[in-house]
Amino acid sequence: MNAPTPVTHTAELVARRSVGQSLEAPFYVSDEFFDLDIEAVFARSWLFVATEAELPEPGDYVTVTVGPYSVILVRDDDEEVRAFHNVCRHRGARILNEERGSVGNIVCGYHHWTYGVDGRLRYAESQAPDFDRSCFGLRSVHARTVTGLVFICLAERPPADFDEVARRVEPYIAPHNLPHAKVAKQIDLVERGNWKLTMENNRECYHCAGHPELQRCYFPLYNFTAANVPPALLPTYERFLKADADARASYEALGLPYAPIEELDDRPTGFRIQREPLDLAGESFTEDGTAAVKPLLADFPTARLGHLGLHLQPNAWFHFAADHAVTFSVIPLASDRTLVRTTWLVHADAEEGVDYDLDALTRVWAVTNEQDATFVARAHQGISSPAYVPGPYSPSESQVEDFVNWYITRLRAHLERRGRQRRGRQR
């Protein structure tokens, strides 16, 4: 396995990154880069961490772990989703130790300091007469909901462009009625590879021949054009062009925005969104392309609306069909382990076994995730070999380059800030 790269070499590796090529091995395998990724990327970016459907009632909570941070997401008594550091203000004990649950108050199990779901300290036994409870509420974490999707940012000053991104994607997502959906299933999969390999794998379809179930309903043409589509995919491409023309006519008749917006590389909150057709019946991510759920998520007059795809840097992607939505959240666990959390959302009134079959609903993406986990593990194993050298991205992998360049830009900015702070302390 590659020897860990000393911290003193980190900035040099970042500075010499070659455009259009995969990263050098230490970026993926060294603990130093894992720590830097948490500090420079995950502690400074807006992260997708949950759906509102996971917090249906006041007091419902979910805990999220990002590197050394543990965060509580909780719905307060005013129905708002709030986020707090999972650290007691007494002596720092971890407060909530379960992944999810429901509380009346948030109570530390060590000395029983008690907080409301608004984060305010309500009870602390045996304190001095001048003790001011108002000074010891839970420390807040920035939290935002965007049409049913919950985001947090651990930085003191979050990226300022998130409001603009939310404003631009909301008209695309809003028709899918996510704030009134429910969770049909959630699967946590730990991939045996670096988080960047997980994201790179998602950002291209060069490998999609390895997803036979997905290819039945999903046009495997991601980032291919008429100029570079492989000969074996030409019949699929011709079928796509016809389906795309039909889909655009439907979108325009229904007033659904569909045009791609792609700003993955040149802003702190990189994103891409587009509505496009699905293959076969064109309705959903199922083996025959037919809708898996009745009723539909929203008041659509037809299920044949393809899907809305959204990518967000650094840790999420989404697929919204007429009948259900699927969200994917990526959280680094270690330099060689990554959590991929997949959540299927359906109409709040849909009843399992009556309105949908859970296996039919989840099978395509569950199988695809397992296949991707194998690809990511193989990539990490290969990169861990001393024989590994960076290789070139193909034209169809341009969004991999966008992701990697976005990532390198974040690291450079962080290292520059750290250098300025160090120089300031030395004066």
TrEMBL record:
Residues 46-152 form the Rieske domain. Transmembrane segments: none annotated. Keywords: 2Fe-2S, Dioxygenase, Iron, Iron-sulfur, Metal-binding, Oxidoreductase. InterPro entries: Rieske_2Fe-2S, Rieske_2Fe-2S_sf, Ring_hydroxy_dOase_asu_C_dom, Rng_hydr_dOase-A. Its cofactor is Fe cation. GO terms for molecular function: dioxygenase activity. PANTHER family: CHOLINE MONOOXYGENASE, CHLOROPLASTIC (PTHR43756:SF5). It comes from the Bacteria. This is Aromatic ring-hydroxylating dioxygenase subunit alpha. Gene3D superfamilies: Naphthalene 1,2-dioxygenase Alpha Subunit, Chain A, domain 1 (3.90.380.10), Rieske [2Fe-2S] iron-sulphur domain (2.102.10.10).
